[in-house]
Amino acid sequence: MGVEIKIEHLTKSFGKQLIWNDVTLTMPAGEICVMLGPSGTGKSVMLKTLIGLLKPDRGSVIIEGTDIANCSEKDLYEIRKLFGVLFQDGAMFGSMNLFDNVAFPLREHTKKSESEIKRIVLEKMDLVGLIGAEYKLPGEISGGMRKRAGLARALVLDPEILLIDEPDSGLDPVRTSFINQLFVDLNAQINATFMIVTHDIHSVRVVPDQIGLLYHKHLAMFGPREMLLSSDEPVVRQFLNAQTVGPIGMSEEKDATELEAEKDMDLPPLPPIPLQLETSNGIPRKSQRPPGEWCRLNGVTPPPGSFRADSILSASAAKSSD
Ligand SMILES: Nc1ncnc2c1ncn2[C@@H]1O[C@H](COP(=O)(O)OP(=O)(O)O)[C@@H](O)[C@H]1O
Ligand SMILES: [Mg+2]
């Protein structure tokens, strides 16, 4: 059914290098969350902290009443069974075919028979569109197929929480759209809580229920998609619209001279908020809200042209003209 993840005052450093400080957010059960941020802001470190592979300096990660940042190895082992993870590089075993790669968690963590394993592996490979490729080696397939194989492997233990690190890096726009559709359909089907780390602002605009932005060693904002897409907060606005004008520079933060030089520049208008991506069969996901609901409930006027069937196209047009 998906479980809630409550992150409180989470702080992580490596030696003297602070990665992020005092991160507090709640990922609602069954919702799709996306975490954004410039390279090196600690998005992957965040995912690894969420499954207890890395220990934070301070703070807690509460899942079903257990604080996984401060629990015993035994409790951590149990909680980890709730997770499916797709690491940034897919992390496939190069000498194993896709079937054996996907079967690996079942053989490691369960006592299921080989025939039961075969049934589950083929079911998950079917879900991600990889039937027919079971006996290929990871090196023999495209990057997009490797990601989908990694996703099938993340799904075999029926996770309540799915962590996905940059599923779209190295994928062309069409394959990125396919994988986005896959996430939305999967979320409808398994109702797990998703945390997707991505750089692709088009995906961010159409896929998630919640968006977070890590910037300059802290969480700049986390909240419903419509809240961030209508936000005037300079960092959020700049990042979500891929603009050069704003506080974020080539080397993370602009200096005073750079900011002074652009202080009278007009910010481009906020592009329309597109409709959220629907499931393939048109049946709404449990956590999907009607278009414009957040704006209405919070008295926020969305940018002109929002929530129209053609605003997805105008958003991508805005992106390509940047
Ligand atoms: N195990 C580690 N030991 C020391 N430093 C690390 C480790 N993992 C990540 N880092 C550092 O943490 C920072 C954030 O890394 P990462 O989470 O991979 O960034 P992102 O995924 O946002 O691009 C980087 O400066 C990286 O060098
Ligand atoms: Mg990363």
Automatic annotation (TrEMBL):
<keyword id="KW-0813">Transport</keyword>
<dbReference type="InterPro" id="IPR017871">
    <property type="entry name" value="ABC_transporter-like_CS"/>
</dbReference>
<dbReference type="InterPro" id="IPR003593">
    <property type="entry name" value="AAA+_ATPase"/>
</dbReference>
<dbReference type="GO" id="GO:0016887">
    <property type="term" value="F:ATP hydrolysis activity"/>
</dbReference>
<keyword id="KW-0547">Nucleotide-binding</keyword>
<feature type="region of interest" description="Disordered">
    <location>
        <begin position="264"/>
        <end position="322"/>
    </location>
</feature>
<dbReference type="GO" id="GO:0005524">
    <property type="term" value="F:ATP binding"/>
</dbReference>
<feature type="compositionally biased region" description="Polar residues">
    <location>
        <begin position="313"/>
        <end position="322"/>
    </location>
</feature>
<protein>
    <submittedName>
        <fullName>ABC transporter ATP-binding protein</fullName>
    </submittedName>
</protein>
<keyword id="KW-0067">ATP-binding</keyword>
<dbReference type="InterPro" id="IPR003439">
    <property type="entry name" value="ABC_transporter-like_ATP-bd"/>
</dbReference>
<dbReference type="Pfam" id="PF00005">
    <property type="entry name" value="ABC_tran"/>
</dbReference>
<feature type="domain" description="ABC transporter">
    <location>
        <begin position="5"/>
        <end position="241"/>
    </location>
</feature>
<dbReference type="InterPro" id="IPR027417">
    <property type="entry name" value="P-loop_NTPase"/>
</dbReference>
